[in-house]
Amino acid sequence: MMNQRYTNEELVTRLWDKEIVKDLMARRCYYKQNDWRQRELDELWVRKPENQADMSLSNNRGYFVGPDDIKAYYVDGIAEKRQSQLELVKKTNPAAEYGNSVMNAHTYHTIMVELSGDGLWARYLAYDHGHQTDPQEDGTAKGYWTSGHILADLIKEDGVWKILHIKQNHDLTIPAAPVPGAGGGGFGGPPPEAEGEGAPGGPPEGGEGPGGPGGPPPMPDMGPDPYEDEYGTPTVALPYVVKWAWNDLPKQMPNTYEPHESYDPTISYGPAGHPDQLRSWR
Asked: Does residue 11 have a pLDDT over 90?
């Protein structure tokens, strides 16, 4: 039993460490939302050179490893995207400023935290529900909802919790609003087929749709998933494959009942712990 190993004071310390880890990851949400990405790397991530050599930020295509590659992708790459978005917005709104018509918010919830036996490593898992909005050529903006997992390793540097690895595993993207007149919309769907006198892309009212008689018209093709535009080209290409990711998630879950004694890279959320490398480690 946990309370047979630790004193009451040690249990309070471990509980407080978990709260600090949760607070740090919540702070990361707001830094990202504000595009304070360099500040995030400076304040929330590991700073010691020996730890920075192992630090990684991953998405569905693989892992960006080390401070230079992470900065090039996560800070500089997004800054370039924001500048191009600003130039796009200024075509219809010359007075636009950096960030106009762009919205990016992600929230972490259903949180699990495993604190290692030695108290120096935390494994974090949460689900990320967020939304993003990107400007369009005609002066409008396109919004969509995103869902996925956030997994992180945090370690103590001189007694202070810092992020070592983050995995951003994107599961799906959903349009934030229906396409006007089309009865709905979806990314990567079949092209609409106009039939009769109904709404564009669908059957006439009361006709045969995907949902049966009187059902909704087909969803129009909205092109590729816009979230994939931010994947970049990872340092270590080990893709997160959605078709098996949900089956592998239990292997990656923090073990809050029987925590590991100390940091182990082979079960971390860095490249060495990728489930395609080691499909069953528990």
From this structure: yes
Q: pLDDT class for 245, splitting at 50, 70, 90?
A: low
Residue 224, CA atoms < 13 Å, CB-side half-sphere = 6
CB-CB contact of 220 with 185 (8 Å): yes
Q: pLDDT class for 201, splitting at 50, 70, 90?
A: very low
Rounded Cα distance, 187 and 131, in Å: 15
For 35-50, write each residue's pLDDT tens digit. Answer: 999 999 999 999 999 9
Residue 29 near residue 108, CB atoms below 8 Å: yes
pTM exceeds 0.85 for this model: no
Pick from 20, 31, 281: nearest CA to 154 = 20
Do residues 202 and 182 make contact, with C-beta atoms less than 8 angstroms apart?
yes
Q: Is pLDDT above 80 for 186? A: no
Average pLDDT over the chain, rounded to whole?
Answer: 80
* Cα 49 to Cα 67: distance, rounded to the nearest angstrom: 9
DSSP class per residue in the chain? -HHHHS-HHHHHHHHHHHHHHHHHHHHHHHHHHTT-HHHHHHHHB--SHHHHTT-EEEETTEEEESHHHHIIIIIIHHHHHHHHHHHHHHTT-TT--TTTT-EEEEEEEEEEEEE-TTSSEEEEEEEEEEEEEEE-TTS-EEEEEEEEEEEEEEEEETTEEEEEEEEEEEEEEEESSPPTTTT--BTT-PPP---TTSSTTSPPTTSEETTEET-PPPPPB--S-GGGGG----SB-----HHHHHHHHHHHS--SSS--SS--GGGSSSGGG-TTTSS---
